[in-house]
Amino acid sequence: MTYNFAAILPELILIFGEPVLMLTASTMGSRATKITTWGTVALLVAASAVLLLTGEPSTGGVLFGGLLVADSFATFGKLLIFGSAAVTIIAAHRWFGHKDEHGPEYPVLVLLATVGMAVMVSSTSLVTLYVGLELNSLAAYVLASYRRTDARSAEAGLKYFVLGGLASGILLYGMSLLYGFTGTTQFTGIAAAFGRAETMSLGLLFGLVFTFAGLAFKVSAVPFHMWTPDVYEGAPTPVTAFFASAPKVAAMLLTVRVAIEALGPAIDAWRQIVVFAALASILLGAVAAWGQTNLKRLLAYSSINNVGFALIGLAAGGAAGVSSVLFYMAVYVVMTVGAFLVVLQLVDDKGEPVEEIERISGLSRRRPGLAAALAVFMFSLAGIPPLFGFWPKLLVFNAAVDAGLIWLAVVGILGTVVGAFYYLKIIKVMYFDDEHGEPVGTVRAPLEMAFILIAALFVSPLGYLLIGPIGEAANTAAAALF
Amino acid sequence: MEFPILSILILLPLVAGIAVLFMGANAARWTALLTTLACFVLGIVLWANYQIGGPRWQFVEYAEFAQGALVPAWALGIDGIALMLIMLSVFLMPICIGASWRAIQNRVPEYMAAFLLMEALMIGVFAAQDLMLFYIFFEGGLIPMYLIIGIWGGVEKIKAAYKFFLYTLAGSVLMLVAMLYMVLTAGTSFIPDLMAYDFAPGVQWWLWLAFFASFAVKMPMWPVHTWLPDAHVQAPTAGSVILAGVLLKMGGYGFVRFSLPMFPDASADFVPLVFGLSGIAVVYTSLVALVQKDMKKLIAYSSVAHMAFVTFGLFAFNRQGIEGALVVMLSHGLVSGALFLCVGVIYDRLHTREIARYGGLADNMPGYALLFLLFTMASVGLPGTSGFVGEFLALVGTYEMSSWGAIVATTGIILGAAYMLWLYWRICYGTQKNADAAAMPDLDKREWLLLAPIAAVVMWMGVYPESFLAPMRDDVGLLLERLETAAPEGDAHLTEGDPSAAAAEAEHHEDAHAAGEAAQ
Predict the structure, then answer these.
(1) Which of A185, A405, B153, B497 sits in a 20 to 30 Å window from B130, CA-based?
(2) Is residue B448 part of a domain?
(3) Chain B contacts of A406, Cβ < 8 Å?
(4) Could you tell me which chain A residue has the CA closest to the CA of B65?
(5) Residue B247 domain-assigned?
(6) In chain B, how many domains are there?
(7) Which residue has the higher pLDDT, B359 or A48?
(8) Segment B170-197, tens digit of pLDDT
(9) Surface of A (330-389) touching B: CB under 8 A
(10) How far is Cα B271 from Cα A183, in angstroms, rounded to an integer?
(11) Which domain holds residue A335?
(12) Is A413's CB within 8 Å of B176's CB?
């Protein structure tokens, strides 16, 4: 067996760069945080550059005896993950500022989680899948409770840890059943076993159901979404921004890969699960968000809602369905990161973060640019044309209609109307309501502002010009699974 | 390459809309006014260069972003129907900007930007030749209108803005699913191709219903009209003008462009439904209009009643009906817009829309009373005004299809006269009860400039409708050809009269001929 290390060069860069950064940081005293932050960003950029430059298929198919694969599907996911991780690290650096809580370990933790996610999207075996997932999760638990002095942050970390542990248990149980009844941990072997079985044995069915339950927790699909609002609200805002973007992509891509590569022949069995999770997520994400008063909590429900739409694409199945999920996640990440970057800029005159929705009333007068950007992201998340957020929604509905699931598309699309209500509420508060009278602080953050501008331009109608390249990349990536 | 006039008509207001955001209040006003006037001039150029009897689609432009049937192509092109509606939009737009000149003092740049964006999207809706591009423009219009109602609206603006947005969105999303199905089935999203594509009759049914959900809300038809009175009452004057003048026409345009030619069989099957709903709308909303105490609300309900003439005429499946419906759309766009401006004129002076607070304005505002009377008569459908031409043709068409439908629809004319004349009497005649109302000054120069052009066009359309009908005639003919096989039999059973008596005018003869065919 030959080991093709060149194919995992991006991961290697991150893995070996990380201890180097830590060691350097330990001798640098007060400048350590700055060094690790920019060092991590540089590593992520380098890893992305390697991905872009080598391209596939030079990276070669299955590696290490079938543990990992470096295909264009993984590349698509990794680029999204590395990019969003880098942006959230930069935003966190300014947000934490010179507070005692901020230390050099923050970017390193994000980096570890990122490596875990890279493994998740490229795993082709249940074992690597689990290792990647846990590497990501353990770092994430620490990140959620990163603000030591804030009780909410500690609570978020604890909740995340307990519920995440439970979900891991469920997932492991499902995986052990799959292994027990198929005799292999390889995705291809599992698929072959499902293909052979004329009627699915109870063991396989249970394995499938538990695996999906565990994965549903990771993508925060209803009914395994309960942790999301609490963790999003409690965790420090940059961490929430990170949670809402990169891990979401990784978990969704992982789910897609497991569903298609390992459980592809059993599509009739899991399609009903995915359809239920999709519709339940869309409706709950939309309805439960109505009464929220906290911006981060609202965005948590928004992420649940969006996961539901992406799952519609998965339920449709086929290369077109997978491609629509990938396109959806690409646009979703930009919208979400953009929205969180705006939230990160909201501070009162003492520099304390503002999270309550009512406190941003009349924002359009005090910070017109920021308010306009948030409005663009909200309309886009709601999927209102001509903003670009409309397009991925259209693609998943198109995949559903193409697969003959017209009723699913109809129910899902009615869900967008219900969901539009609370996105409109943010715009109403910012634009229609009178000013709150509370002084508002300004943050000097030119880099973040540039990111917000780029994200806003991306979701503006100009984004339609990118349909070609993104769609092509998503199609190539989706084709890698079939 | 030809001069891309349609692209410029869309992009000019869009670019200006972004630019005004960075200007002061006065600069924004002037930029918006000049831009909309420039668009109007371009519109006149468009009309002047439109070849009547030429190719069906003119000023065609085509560019692709990416491969795939679903991906919206920048496909623009207009027929006579779209030309007239674009003319209506570019004509009303400078008037809207002028109407907001003094009434809007708050966040002027944003306001002007919203209106300019609105103009770009409206022209886009009428010019789009790609299904997805159409949908993007159609739905995109929600955003600026939501902001216009929500930011610059009246006391209950928030409720009205939400209701407007969610009602319209809920109607449209079903249409989107239908569009996806159509693109997947037909393999193209090019509207002219789809207009000639024959969908299976069973499928047509569902597609028709999905499109109907959207256009019925937009139109609006009873019983999904309830967003309209709220939106009209709360919106600023110019918002009401554009809403009544152009946005409502998108529903009728949708029927002409999509429902009828793409699903002819289903359209024929659903004639009883459309006639039933329109009949209820005419009688019910007219009665509701009678008892309104708020001027804007009264005109809003009258809009619903007038739009029912459009649906009656369109689903009559004959030339008179469809041409009449199109003229009602144009005429109503002008007249209701002008009526909202008339309300705006006195609202700006007294800051109330309550009818009872006015009275005897003919004494102190004679100029205003004159113009208001003209628009009231046009709304009632007095011969010599634009209202008469459209309503008469639409009713003739309806009669050929369904006598009962025509009987019910005609009561709308009577009730319309009742509520409009009574409104006029309460505002302009009678004794002057309120001193403040009696002290209001007559129209100033700006208001004359806003209302006089509309008055001129209303008379023009009433006296010589040929100017407006000529560009649309061939397109109506093509539509009728498409509908020929599906057209249901009317209950009028017309027989052709003695040609020697009726052949005074060739045109009339053609009409009778077409009617005879429809009756067979």
Answers:
(1) A405
(2) yes
(3) 177, 181
(4) A465
(5) no
(6) 1
(7) A48
(8) 888 889 889 988 888 888 888 888 888 8
(9) 364-365, 379, 384-386
(10) 63
(11) 5-479
(12) yes
